[in-house]
Amino acid sequence: MTRTAVTRTAPARTAPARAVLPRIAPRRRPRELPAPVPPGGLVAEAAGLRVVLGRRAVLDGVTVGVRAGEVLALVGPNGAGKSTLLAALAADLAPTAGEVRIGGRAASGWTAGELALRRAVLPQSAELSFPFPVAEVVRMGRAPWAGTARTDEDAAAVAEALAATETAGFAGRPFSALSGGERARVALARVLAQRTGLLLLDEPTAALDLRHQELVLHVCRERAAAGAAVVVVLHDLGLAAAHADRIAVLHGGRIAAAGPPAEVLDAEVLSEVYRRPVEVFPHPRTGAPLVLPVRGSLGPREPAVPTRDRNPDNSPRLTAP
Amino acid sequence: MTALQKTGGPTAEPTPEPEPDPALPSRSPTPQRRQVPRGRARSLLLASVLVGALPALALLSAGIGAYEIPIGDVLGSVQHRLGLGGQALDRTAESVLWNIRLPRVVLAVLVGASLGCAGALMQGVFGNPLAEPGVIGISSGAAVGAVGAIVLGLAFAGTWTVTVCAFAGGLVTVVLVYAMSRSGGRTEVVTLILTGIAVTAFAGALIGLFVFFADTAQISQITFWQLGSLAQATWPKVLAVLPCAALGLLLAPLFARRLDLLALGERPARHLGVDVERLRAALILLVALLTAAAVAVSGIVTFVGLVVPHVLRMANGPGHRFLVPGSALGGAVALTAGDLAARTLAAPAELPLGVLTALVGSPFFFWLLRRTRRKQGGWA
Q1: CA dihedral in degrees (B277, B282, B287, B290; nearest 10)?
Q2: CB distance from A225 to chain B under 8 Å?
């Protein structure tokens, strides 16, 4: 909750800060600082989005919005367009048709510097050309705020991000000396240190162990609770079900289903989308939906049939933890 | 369907199983708070060593040579000319000092600073520690411009003609190398080096062609380019490169912060508010400017821009706010020392400076290649 407060006080003291601004990056017009978005307010949206890469329509008619205070998970098979949608929401690529709006304005209407105050993006793989120490890498996340009143937060934001991702222990080590999972968490720390109202995370859990997967999604939830809008690409449907407020299932460049996990995680839909029979059943204690591929007698290519109808003898699994 | 207690509300609490205590531990900024002053102290120490070494070496270089001038006398003469007391030397000494030694020393400083700085910038833009004007063929490209100007007898810009042509040649080459060696927003080491080989070969062919059409006087001038030397330093030459070098050296540190961010990759840099396209264009221009300044007066002097930023990076980390001005300073120190060595090691003969830097730099480059390769697990 403290972070929301910070967001709200920020735009107040911009005038004196502007004097230092041209030194960092000369701009034609003064940067517009982000206005706070009330919980539930639309932070970013894509409307009728169509993206053609090469000759293939990677996204076709995608409409999706993300609100302040929610975690939206993008799931779907490989090549469904998840990362492309995320890139479009990040204003990385210009849509062939349709529009992306961030903070109530068309994404193309912002300068790079202004966008950096509004959204932070975690790329799928973290790379670094030179062996900067971890703390330095995380501090890079504060670069967009240079010259604004919120540079005061720099040290606190970096320390908090390091702590939240459990990377403070190797803050002094060079990035290149870290393992894949550690790098991924440092990259996330950099994104968190940016303290933007919109977080776009592309597979933040891909390289992580069980503990850190939970940790990362817990951080997402925390950020959402503090008023941020979080969009996260996930492969693990169980993680999505447990931590997301809404899930959008992408399939062949379209949104096959979107809504709260309980509605979206439907065995029939998922079996079709993933071309693999899956079963969905409630967690015995929490009731959260668990998604597992049907294993055993069925081949992977068998036509998708709603599992619960066909497999009544599958009950032992329901009691498994 | 499943019973779900969680609804889509924005305030929904995450209630999976008992959290494995990801609760943020006590936020301790201690690690980096201890780190920063230590790093800063090291930068300061390094900077003061470099700042101290440069005038010392310059004085030494001005005094040592076939005609020895004691350092006290050098200082005295400089003071005298600046109107700060001191006294003039006898005519020969004064002439040697002011017409031969000092322009050469100043030129060494300018060229070294330009090359060092250009190297640091280029490695930053390419995101690749092996990028260097000499290695990837930019110097050759600039030399083509310069040699072309000599052979074709161009004089459209007076004493600056060679510099202008070197700049044009350098610029075309940088753009070419950049365009050819990048794919998908990244520069692979192999592609970069191979592009450098191709570009250098082509530039070599062009220079050869010019040599073919040149007369004897021009040929000796061209040979001098290819070897790289400061032996023909004069004050007009110093003046011809000063604007280019000064402009480049003054502008370069402005890009340091953004170069740091560029190390994350192009997209992440853009996500942090860097206008990557503009940054890249500006830096490429700057690299061409600095390289042209250096090549126009000294010919091809390689490896300064490779070795200097590397040594500094190893000593003080990769932060560009220190690295860019530090490399300029370090380059100046290295080339002043190098030129002094070139003049004195084989006295009375003089080693070509470019040969000397290559002699020292090539093994270093080789070692660097090996190390990079080991780190990346072979060339993909």
Answers
A1: 180
A2: yes
